[in-house]
Amino acid sequence: MADLAQPTVGSFRRVRAALKTPWALSAALLVAVAVLDPQNLSTVSVFAVRALGHTAQYILFAVLLLAYLKATGAEVLVARAFEGRETRMILLAALFGGLAPFCSCEVIPFVAGLLALGAPLSAVMAFWLSSPLIDPPTLLITAGALGWPFAIGKAVAAVGLGLFGGFVVRALSRGGALADPLRVYKRSGCCGCGTPKPVAPVWRFWTEADRIAVFRQEFLSNALFLLKWLALAYVIEALLVQYVPAEVIAGLVGGEGLLPIVIAALVGMPAYLNSYVAPPLLAGLTEQGMTVGAAMAFMVAGAVSSVPAMAAVWSLVKPRVFALYLGLGITGAVIAGVLFQMI
């Protein structure tokens, strides 16, 4: 009996896990439209398919670029930002934060190693604040959904937030308020990753079989990851455009002034999904009346407060540093929204 029960339990778990995937959620939303509002099923489906097709060119370039960076080992260049004078470290950490092809688990041992080796918290904070906001795939997907002005604005906001946080932490550290920020850290076997090894990137990666295998694996895994999340995002965007009245969005985060931007930043922190889903959703919201400043504040605040970003910070630093991280994130989001709205 036990032998018969084990496959049944395993099959049930696999089915349950499959139902939680973005593919299943996308299908469930479309089935719901087919049942509840069948006359608009084609409208919603065509909208989502066309939007995904428009972004496909950006997805292809993004996954090729990310696979290339991984295969060459280019992420080791980020470690060089944490050498030299503190001001230089803050500047380079904020810049490289938007270029580092780290997964959320790789950031943890990387930064833990830097802090353990004595890298200043100011430079680490600059990297931490800018890194979740932008990376090459996010930049391209944001451009495809919201246009290049918004994508470039987000990249500038990422670097600006990193600089803002880095120099604020530097000023506070001089008074001794942030001494000994690191928790007791025990490295886990997450992804088999660790701090980058001090080796130079191999730009001609195709000369080594192991690096070719890394390129192939990264390309396929990232392409699947982006496709499934963007498919869900565009289905949700189609539903927003079709069913959410424009006056509701305009009433909450439309209009001029500071209040819509602050509301968008506060809503963005708990509501955020990930950097690939957000641009299509914001495209739908801006069509319904959301201002560009509020959209920028929503995206910046949400990226800083994403689950992987917060988990990385909480696992490494003490509560006061974690609170400072969130405070800098929400303040920087509001500032970014105001400035982007003005421009």
Largest sheet, strands/sense/barrel: none
Oligomer: single chain
Count of helical stretches: 15
The structure class reads mainly alpha
Considering DSSP H and I runs of 4 or more, what fraction of the residues is helical? over 70%
Number of domains: 1
How would you spell out the order of helices and strands?
Answer: HHHHHHHHHHHHHHH
Any idea what the shape is?
Answer: globular
What is the arithmetic mean of pLDDT?
79
**Which radius of gyration do the C-alpha atoms yield?**
21 Å
List low-confidence stretches.
185-196
Distance between the termini: 69 Å
Quick summary:
The chain is an all-alpha fold and 343 residues long. Helix content is 73%, strand content 0%.
Task: Give a verbal description of the structure.
- The protein has one domain (39-342).
- Helix content is 73%, strand content 0%.
- It has helices at 2-19, 22-36, 41-72, 86-97, 104-116, 121-130, 136-146, 148-174, 209-243, 246-253, 259-271, 278-287, 292-304, 307-316, 319-342.
- Helix 3 (41-72) packs antiparallel against helix 9 (209-243) and helix 8 crosses helix 15 (319-342).
- The protein is globular.
- The N and C termini lie far apart (69 Å).
- Its main location: membrane.
